[in-house]
Amino acid sequence: MSEPALETPYEKGVNKWLIDQARPSIRKKLGTDYDPEKLVYLLGVVCESGPLRDDEVLDLAEMFIFLMENHLNWKLGAQVFRHYLNEGNQSGATLFVANSYLLSSPDFRKDCCISQWAVVERAIKERVSDTTGALFPRDRTTGEPKPGFVTDDMGQQIQIIPAPSPLRTGGTEVIYAETSVRITPLGETEIAATFNHIGVTSKITVQSTKLTDTSWEIEIKDWTSWGWDLADFNPSDKPNSPDIQFFPINVGTFFGAPWIEKKVTNIRANQFDISLQCLDQLIGFDKYMLQLANRQFQRTNIVTGLTVHYFPRPFYARFAKWDFFAETASCGVPQKYTISEAAAVPAP
Asked: Which of 2, 119, 171, 277 lies 20 to 30 Å from 332, alpha-carbon distance?
């Protein structure tokens, strides 16, 4: 079918023929018949972080789940949305996730190496250089013992009780390290679009052998890591980053032909004073999911047609543990090395 003239206004300026051409594509992408004008309007509001009613947020969430699962092949993204919506109050407080989502990213492995090794290396140096019998771990500012807790990959707490380190005289010690690793490149992969920062916790078994009065052989006997994140859809308070999770969804995602997308977005941009750049960018959806948190909703799911009961709430996503050296062999972290007294003194 040839492209018709589009000068004739329809309702608020959107050509009826043009809008009708969008309906089959929307049905295919979102799994439901949804008014194209309303859809474009809602996406325009979202891209400028405007206000939406709860039912409008849920409309978009249900359609996004279908889109991610059936067209983007983003099973994890759809699972995170579903788990947060907590249909029927059946979801557990924790979502357990395969570590392959993290380890498939070379950027994650590299940044994990850098941040984790910085903590571990300093901890070893501090212990080897100590001549006072100090207890570790300790507060870096005051030097006082610092008891604490870390959470394992199954969500169980591990208590850390300060104790003297055997590393200076020669011995074996378990050290825990926790860092935050940003998922990059932002928005270009499923894991980056679903999570922004991942907490990484490691359990490291370190053995020292005293070579001389001023040198030691350090061997890392075991290094196990795991990841976690609180999936609370809590928007960032940074002015240039209003949202954390981003999904590659824009107005053009839902239209079958580029020229339809272009003309619809032009019309809607003019009508609602929405910038075309905004409509073409990734949409941050955090604030809208957070809007639903800890409340109850009963509605008809617009995709399935079934009556649903939602109890949206934050939850922890926990990534299965992995062997640090097996997964980060190229990052340059030594498994065995020698340290001298001068090198052991931590930088001021």
From this structure: 171
